[in-house]
Amino acid sequence: MVTAYDYPFAIHLYTAGIDICLVGDSASMVVHGHDTTLPISLDEMLVHCEAPSRITAAKAIAVIVSFFNLHRLFTIYLLPTISASNSTLYAQLNIVEGKMQYLFDESGKRYLDAFAGIVTVSCGHCHPQILDAIVEQSKLLQHATTIYLHHAIADFGEALASKMPGNLKVVYFVNSGTEANELAMLMARLYSGNLGMIALRNAYHGGSAGTIGLTALNTWKYPIPQGEIHHVMNPDPYRGTFGSDASHYAKEVQDHIDYGTSGKVAGFIAETIQGVGGAVELAPGYLKLVYDMVRKAGGVCIADEVQTGFGRTGSHYWGFETQGAIPDIVTMAKGIGNGLPLGAVVTTPEIASVMAQKIQFNTFGGNPVCSAGGLAVLRVLDKEKRQQHCSDVGSHLIGRLSNLQQKHEIIGDVRGRGLMVGIELVTDRKEKTPAKAETAVLFEKLRELGVLVGKGGLHGNVFRIKPPMCFNKDDADFLVDALDYAISKLQGHDDDCPKVNSDPEGADSTLPTQVDPELLGGWLGCETFVAVFPGEGDLPVYAKRHIKTLQDIPLNYKVHL
Ligand SMILES: Cc1ncc(COP(=O)(O)O)c(C=O)c1O
Known about the structure:
Elements lengths: L1 E2 L6 H6 L2 E6 L2 E6 L5 E5 H6 L9 H26 L12 E5 L2 E4 L4 E4 L2 H4 L8 H13 L10 H12 L7 E5 L2 H16 L4 E4 L8 H6 L14 E4 L13 H15 L6 E4 L2 E2 L5 E2 L4 H11 L3 E5 L24 E4 L10 E5 L1 H7 L12 H16 L2 H22 L3 E7 L2 E9 L4 E2 L1 H13 L2 E2 L1 E3 L5 E4 L7 H19 L25 H9 L15 H11 L10
Parallel strand pairs: 7-20, 9-10, 9-11, 11-14, 14-15
Antiparallel strand pairs: 1-2, 2-3, 3-4, 5-6, 6-7, 8-16, 12-13, 15-16, 17-18, 18-19, 18-22, 21-22
GO cellular component, one term: mitochondrion
Cofactor: pyridoxal 5'-phosphate
Pathway: Cofactor biosynthesis; (R)-pantothenate biosynthesis; (R)-pantoate from 3-methyl-2-oxobutanoate: step 1/2
């Protein structure tokens, strides 16, 4: 048995609180001071490294140690807080770098990002012009708050208002979509003098105590009082009782106002394409009909554009425009900042005036760095004509996916607009039975093939394709080919619980299924650490940083067995 203490780099492991023990072809890691033991075989370790025949033992160890240390920290300090997002979670993926529509894990493996950090990276990961704006503003002034005047905030507010139709001209900056929807609901209640809010079933509007009330997916709702919220029938063309007939769903809203409220409501909130709910587009014309009813009942209409805004739908800049309706309040976040913590509420001067009765204040809302970044996002989207691009690439993607639907029974529905696309998987097209287990397997299989998508819908059986807007037709083709391949392999099995990994002819040729004896020899007999990273120039920045640490290790050090 060899323990990590015999290795020079064991110092790093030891200070990180990790023992590594190699026993034959298996190894285990023991975390000091915790009961956690993470047993792992050598080939499992190597699965975390791309193309193991090309990597050297030391690089493998560096990657593995880093991975396990990270896993340990997540398990101890973070997992309880992120477990609720398990419908979209890649628990085994450590993403360390991003470039436009691509992400890299710590072993340097590249992934096509078709989910954009949950529809957030609008222009592309680390887009150079957005980075420049953030860095330049950070050098001048990071924080001031809106108690002072500042050009970045004013310029951003003006630019954002210029993108809005009608009299939507007053902008409140916040830090997230949840905050934006909280504020919008507050405005609706204050302005209307009523309490009741109407929201759609299958909606997601946030995770705070207030917005959980608006959200209507049991997977995201804690059992707390949700206030006076009325969840009406979802005008879902695929699963809804009335198909695409907006007038029937709208009539149900009127019934609800007449029978389930005092006749007066504070407001109505809806996404135009439900994101978390699985890229469900509302029946055409629905919003216009419902906005009229809600206004007649004294309420205001809120469009949640957290996912659908900024040209992603291709045909329009805002999702509500696809329904020919103009809301009274628009909430936005995610794509507005390309990854910066930023959100906004835009409303009319009339509604904003009720907020002036008290002090409405948000310490970081309108932060100069986020404002400079947000303004850069708007400029990049215009300069790079991303709305048109989303339309072109989106039609190509949806076209190819629709063809794939003809080939594979499991694809029950392909829907969406621009680069906001959903693929709903079912085990029975007629019954529309959610293919929950199959979706989970395909999700992992796509990851192995280098494609990251999102999962959504109440049953987690919808793939959500919402990439950075620079995603191109080649990327779309790669995604569809990968999905085609993965589904073909899945359908080659008739197990109750399909396991793509057990397919002997799977696409796993780049991943080891057995320990390669040569590699094992290389691992244990590794001569020097200088030869460890021959292709250093090709490695992403994170890996280079890693190498520097390892280069501190004396050269020509022999591993003694
Ligand atoms: C439509 C919609 N609204 C609101 C939110 C909440 O945004 P945040 O997570 O930034 O609070 C989300 C988040 O996924 C969302 O998709």
